[in-house]
Structures are given as structure tokens and as C-alpha cells.
């Protein structure tokens, strides 16, 4: 009976973050019980699992508009705000981008007009001419802010991963050193070093391989009060022919403040790049790999959770003031009055995952969304690296919603054609994909869970996230977009952030639907014949090694 008890323990760990929330305790208890039962059924591979859809009561078709909200904005996903701050915005401030070129040009344009702050968090900054163009834009804007008739106090903060950003003789650090040397009071470059890479392990693992232990993987690009959330890094392929996802939040001051504070928090527990290419620890902070690991992780947890708690408290106060005010205007009334802040029809929730610091908010929200997806609902889930955690696989296979999972074909995998051991990684993903497909077939779930492979000549695929369509709806009312890949690394090793966007705006729902369709239109259905194609034969040594290394990529 020990195994079923593990579920409730997992869910109730979050209650320590939420004192005085008995209602949430009941919610998490209900979810944990359902999740525990689902996992236990999967462990036993019970044949009753196959009958679950038949034994469950019929869910009536939804004929009302998708994701209907009551006048006070209490929608079916309101439980997320018990964990993180909720930001209500107008859908007119949200724009979905579709191409790498659009992403690159928007970033350059935003840097050029920034007056107060530029905050950029990425895995790394590349070393090619396009990346240099981005650095030149930063330099130009900083120079302009000093020489303007009315000088502005423009500050630039950049957060990268230490190991990835230090790879090679020419690297992210060398790209940013001139900027740091010229504007030492206005530029901050923080390099996150995982606390799990230390001691003898740090000395023995060579460059590139040391990146498997843990990374800073958050991708946030912020310019004054405008924010881009994406899974794309700051590298030339992400500006040209590597397909990702991107959402632009315009004039969203509270969201910009939150992500500025989040990047500052991670920056404070990171190593600080100096003008001579050395690194230093922030005064009073435990060293990430020389200091005591437990003490470092406790300090990092507190620093990040303080940001989440304070933002959540601010938003709760703002929500109470806003929705108990008689002055709340409709979209049409606000537009007629020239008000730039109409009543929100879209809600943004930042979801943070930093397992090294015992922060698991994104994992809990994602598992809950998959658990609660009802029969008739459709989940479109995409990842550039198909390597779902066991918990996510269990939920996909053990719940009632329909799933369309989009993944990279071997030819558009970012490791395709790589030298050395890395060149075998696409084959390892094929092996994982085939194992999952075989399990889908063995459970008779082919009609409910379908795999699609993305392919585009001359491109690679890096998109990740999901779109949720409620039962009876042809448009999504929720999407997850950001850095997580739904794999072991995202959940257990790396620092990740994404946002849940919940909207009742038909216009924004159509944008999200079009985004999903454009990605899936370039894909083909996976069948048993897929694995018989030339180039899909996985070598024996790859099959043997994959179970041992799948938690590292």
C-alpha cells in the first residue's frame, strides 16, 4: 500500500508554500488521489485500463463558448493562481509569432527603442554574425542612452548557462566582454552553474558532456514593459531555420516586472562575469560548486520563491481592487473612452521548474492539466526532443482526452549529423518513440493517442508546449509556451520557465489555433511502417545505451 500513498505526499508538498489554504488542500488531495489511482493502474498494466473509457460516464458535448468565465473572471483554471501570480491582460496585448526571422527582427527592434531595461535569459549566445548584430544593437542603445539630450538609465541584464556559455575559445562570454568592459555600470552578465556539477565530477567530465548534468534553460527576452516568451536560444539557427514558438506580450508592466525579478533572482545565485573574463560570486552568496550544496540550494530556493510569493501577493491585491471596483469597463467601453487598460479577457500564469532548488510548480500544473483533461478534450502536445517523463507518459496513456503529439523526425532533430556520440542521439529518440508507439498499440489507444513527425527540408525543429481544446470546442482556450520539453531534463535537471495562457478571446484563440495548425501541417502520421523506413534502423548499441542515458538529454 506504500505506492498509492506517494501521490498524495507529492501533491501536498506544495501546501507548505500556501499557508491558510484549506480549499486548496482539498483540491490537491482530490487530484493526488486520482493521479495515484491512475499510476497504480498503469504499474499493474491492468486490462481494466482498456475499459476505462467505456465505464466512465458520458460527458455531454459543450455547446457554450469554450472556457466560459463568470463576470469575476473565475474560470476553470483559476486553481493555478493558488500557486503562482495571475496576470489579467487584454488579448489585444498578446501576439503569437510564427517564424525565426520575425522573432529576430522583433528583438532587434525592441532593443533599439528600449529606454529603461533589456533583460535576456537564454541557454547561450551564439558567436556568428547574426548574434554579433544583436550585441551591436545592445551597444548602440546603451551608447544612445548616454548621449541623448535627456539621457535614460538603460540597464542590460543577461542570464546564460555557465557551461554552455563557456564552451570553446570563442563563446558567449567573449561575445559579451566588450559590452561589459565598455558599460560596466549598466551591463550585468550572470552565468548559472548547476550545483550538481562539482568536485571530482566537475574535474573529470569534459566540455560539452558537462552540460548534461544541468543547465540554465529559461528563455525570456524583455524590453521595458514588453516580453517575448519562447523556447528559442540566441543563436543564428534560431533566427533563420530552426522552428520554435514565440509569444509577444506588449505593454504588460506587471509581467515584465515579474520576469525581471525572476532573472535577477537567478542571476543573484549565479556567477558574475567580470571585464577580465573571470567570474565572481555575489557578495554573501554561497558558491554554487565550491560551497555547501544544501546551503546553496536553500538560499536559491528562498531567493526565487520570494519573487513568486511577492508577485502573487501583489496580484491578489490588484485583483481584489480591480474586481470590487465599480469602474471596471468592458472592452468596448474602454476603447470608446480611450482607456488603455480594458477588462482582461486573458490570464497569464508563470510556471517555474527548478528541481535542483526543490521548485516544481510547472511539473505540478502540467500533471494536473493532463489529469483533469476530460473525455472529448483534445491536447496537442509538441516537443523537439520526445522523451516524456514516466509520469507524463502514464497520464497520456491513462486519461481520457485525445492526444496529438508532434515531435521531430530524425532529419530535423538538432543533433542530426553531429560528430561523435552526439550523432547517435536522433537514433536514441527514434528508439524512445518506437517504444512509446508500441505501448500505445499494445493498449489499443491508437485512435486516442496519435504521434506526428515534423519534417521541413533544410530546417530543424525545436518547438515545445501544448494547446488544450475543451470538449466540443474547435479552438484552444489554454496554451503552455516556454522552455520545458516535458522530458526528464526539464523536470529534474534544468532551470525552466513557461507561461500558461488562458483566454476567452476568440481572436487570440484563433491565433493559437493557427499556430498549432501551421506546425502540424508540416507533419506526417506515425505508423508501424514509419519505423521500417530506411535510416530508422537503430543500432543495437544505441538500444542498449539509451535506457542508461535517456535522463541526460
Name the poorly predicted regions: 1-35, 39-74
Q: How big is the Rg?
A: 23 Å
Helix proportion: 40-55%
Main beta sheet:
10 strands, mixed
Tally of DSSP β-strands: 21
Number of helices, where a helix is a run of at least 4 consecutive DSSP H or I residues: 18
Q: How much strand content do the residues show?
A: 15-25%
* Class per helix and strand makeup: alpha+beta
Overall pLDDT level: 86
Distance between the termini: 33 Å
**Approximate shape:** globular
Name a few traits of the molecule.
553 residues, alpha+beta, 18 helices, 41% helix, 18% strand, globular, disordered N terminus
Would you mind describing this structure in some detail?
By secondary structure, the protein is an alpha+beta fold. It is built from 18 helices and 21 strands. A hairpin with a 4-residue loop joins strand 12 and strand 13. Helix 1 packs antiparallel against helix 2, helix 4 packs parallel to helix 5 and helix 10 packs antiparallel against helix 11. The longest helix has about 30 residues. The chain starts with a helix and ends with a helix. The N terminus is likely disordered. Pathway: Phospholipid metabolism; phosphatidylglycerol biosynthesis; phosphatidylglycerol from CDP-diacylglycerol: step 1/2; Lipid metabolism. InterPro entries: PGS1, PLipase_D/transphosphatidylase. GO terms for molecular function: ATP binding; CDP-diacylglycerol-glycerol-3-phosphate 3-phosphatidyltransferase activity; hydrolase activity, acting on ester bonds.
Amino acid at each position: 500500500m506504500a505506492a498509492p500513498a506517494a501521490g498524495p505526499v507529492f501533491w501536498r508538498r506544495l501546501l507548505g508554500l500556501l499557508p491558510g489554504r484549506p480549499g486548496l488542500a482539498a483540491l490537491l488531495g482530490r487530484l493526488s488521489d486520482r493521479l495515484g489511482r491512475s499510476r497504480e493502474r498503469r504499474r499493474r498494466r491492468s486490462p481494466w485500463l482498456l475499459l476505462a473509457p467505456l465505464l466512465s460516464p458520458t460527458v455531454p458535448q459543450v455547446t457554450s463558448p469554450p472556457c466560459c468565465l463568470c463576470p469575476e473572471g473565475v474560470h476553470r483554471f483559476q486553481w493555478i493562481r493558488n500557486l503562482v501570480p495571475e496576470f489579467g491582460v487584454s488579448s489585444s496585448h498578446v501576439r503569437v509569432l510564427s517564424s525565426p526571422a520575425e522573432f529576430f527582427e522583433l528583438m532587434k527592434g525592441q532593443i533599439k527603442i528600449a529606454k529603461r531595461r533589456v533583460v535576456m535569459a537564454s541557454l547561450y549566445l551564439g558567436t556568428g554574425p547574426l548574434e554579433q548584430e544583436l550585441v551591436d544593437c545592445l551597444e548602440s542603445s546603451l551608447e544612445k542612452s548616454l548621449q541623448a539630450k535627456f539621457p535614460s538609465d538603460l540597464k542590460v541584464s543577461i542570464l546564460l548557462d555557465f557551461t554552455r556559455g563557456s564552451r570553446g575559445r570563442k563563446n558567449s562570454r567573449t561575445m559579451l566582454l566588450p559590452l561589459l568592459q565598455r558599460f560596466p555600470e549598466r551591463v550585468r552578465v550572470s552565468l548559472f552553474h548547476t550545483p550538481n556539477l562539482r568536485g571530482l565530477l566537475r574535474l573529470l567530465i569534459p566540455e560539452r558532456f558537462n552540460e548534461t548534468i544541468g543547465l540554465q534553460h529559461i528563455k525570456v527576452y524583455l524590453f521595458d514593459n514588453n516580453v517575448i516568451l519562447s523556447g528559442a536560444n540566441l543563436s543564428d539557427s534560431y533566427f533563420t531555420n530552426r522552428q520554435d514558438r514565440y509569444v509577444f506580450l506588449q505593454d504588460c508592466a506587471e509581467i515584465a516586472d515579474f520576469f525581471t525579478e525572476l532573472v535577477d533572482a537567478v542571476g543573484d545565485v549565479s556567477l558574475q562575469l567580470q571585464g577580465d573574463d573571470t567570474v565572481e560570486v555575489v557578495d554573501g552568496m554561497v558558491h554554487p560548486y565550491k560551497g555547501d550544496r544544501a546551503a546553496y540550494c536553500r538560499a536559491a530556493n528562498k531567493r526565487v520563491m520570494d519573487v513568486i510569493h511577492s508577485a502573487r501577493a501583489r496580484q491578489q491585491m490588484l485583483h481584489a481592487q480591480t474586481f470590487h471596483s465599480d469602474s471596471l469597463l468592458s472592452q468596448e467601453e474602454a476603447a470608446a473612452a480611450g482607456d488603455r487598460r480594458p477588462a482582461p479577457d486573458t490570464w497569464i500564469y508563470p510556471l517555474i521548474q527548478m528541481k535542483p532548488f526543490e521548485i516544481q510548480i510547472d511539473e505540478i500544473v502540467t500533471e494536473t492539466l493532463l489529469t483533469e483533461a476530460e473525455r472529448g478534450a483534445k491536447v496537442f502536445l509538441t516537443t523537439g526532443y520526445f522523451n516524456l517523463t514516466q509520469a507524463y507518459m502514464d497520464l497520456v496513456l491513462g486519461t481520457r482526452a485525445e492526444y496529438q503529439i508532434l515531435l521531430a523526425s530524425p532529419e530535423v532533430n538538432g543533433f542530426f549529423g553531429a560528430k561523435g556520440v552526439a550523432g547517435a542521439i536522433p537514433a536514441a529518440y527514434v528508439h524512445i518513440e518506437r517504444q512509446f508507439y508500441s505501448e500505445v498499440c499494445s493498449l489499443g489507444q491508437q485512435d486516442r493517442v496519435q504521434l506526428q513527425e515534423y519534417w521541413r527540408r533544410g530546417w530543424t525543429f525545436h518547438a515545445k508546449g501544448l494547446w488544450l481544446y475543451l470538449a466540443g470546442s474547435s479552438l484552444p482556450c489554454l496554451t503552455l509556451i516556454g522552455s520545458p520539453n516535458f522530458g526528464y531534463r526539464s523536470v529534474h535537471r534544468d532551470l525552466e520557465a513557461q507561461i500558461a495562457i488562458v483566454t476567452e478571446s476568440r481572436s487570440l484563440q484563433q491565433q493559437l489555433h493557427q499556430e498549432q495548425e501551421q506546425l502540424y501541417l508540416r507533419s506526417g502520421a506515425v505508423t508501424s511502417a514509419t519505423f521500417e523506413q530506411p535510416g530508422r534502423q537503430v543500432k543495437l548499441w544505441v538500444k542498449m545505451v539509451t535506457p542508461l542515458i535517456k535522463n541526460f538529454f
